[in-house]
UniProtKB/TrEMBL annotation:
Superkingdom field: Bacteria
GO molecular function: acyltransferase activity, transferring groups other than amino-acyl groups
N-acetyltransferase domain residues: 1-77
Coiled-coil intervals: none
Pfam families: Acetyltransf_1
Lineage, uppermost ranks: Bacteria, Bacteria division WOR-3
Protein name in UniProt: N-acetyltransferase domain-containing protein
Natural source organism: candidate division WOR-3 bacterium
Length: 215
């Protein structure tokens, strides 16, 4: 499994745009991390597609995985709702995030705590839960009969289908994953839907997204 690097955000303040600052940042990042990483990827806005093409980024398709039927429902487990306003809960999240291991052998993120924490504070603050039996933090949201799972973090290797069975409500009939699951999960015939289109910058010939773990 190769090492990769994610370019999350590049922004230029009004009044300073059009001077080449963003381009210099991209060049500096490629020069620095291109020697260490075998892959750099990003998720650009549509109006920035041509900008990134100038630096050699190529468009590939990402997938979103889903389960249309929840077959492994378990007896109700204790699930604790977490709050980012609680120092105790925040410390728990930071501990699991810091010591957590990758849950996918295809494509996963580690040492990316600052990025995850941003999403937890601004986008998923009402969707964070703790599963004590597995010492796991899970970000999920149920909308009508669909359970959207955004993040699963733990210091131990987890069986994702069992986790789904633990947290699925009686009304949930379908599950959507917003991350790439493990190969063992995919072998069970789960569906893949076309999702967003990340740009990839391959540093090693023949390297694909399926070979990388992002740091």
């Amino acid at each position: 499994m190769g090492k990769g690097c994610a370019d999350r955000t590049v922004m230029t303040k009004n009044g300073y745009r059009g001077r080449g600052y963003a381009g210099e940042l991209i060049k500096t990042a490629l020069d620095k991390y291109g020697k260490e990483a075998e892959l750099i990827f990003l998720f650009p806005n549509e109006d920035a597609l041509d900008f990134y093409k100038k630096f050699g980024f190529n468009l590939i398709y990402d997938n979103k995985y889903s389960v249309n039927e929840i077959k492994m429902r378990q007896k109700p487990k204790k699930i604790i709702k977490l709050s980012m306003d609680s120092d105790k809960d925040r410390c728990l999240i930071e501990r699991v995030m810091k010591n957590g291991i990758p849950q996918s052998n295809i494509f996963d993120v580690f040492k990316g705590g600052h990025v995850r924490m941003w999403h937890f504070v601004y986008e998923l603050k009402d969707d964070l839960f703790y599963l004590p039996q597995k010492d796991s933090v899970i970000a999920f949201r149920i909308e009508e009969d669909v359970m959207n799972i955004y993040e699963v973090m733990s210091e131990r290797s987890l069986d994702l289908m069992k986790i789904i069975g633990y947290i699925a409500s009686e009304n949930a009939q379908r599950v959507k994953l917003y991350f790439t699951p493990d190969k063992s999960f995919l072998k069970e015939g789960k569906l893949a839907e076309e999702q967003n289109n990340p740009f990839m910058y391959p540093f090693r010939e023949g390297l694909t997204v399926c070979d990388c773990r992002i740091v």
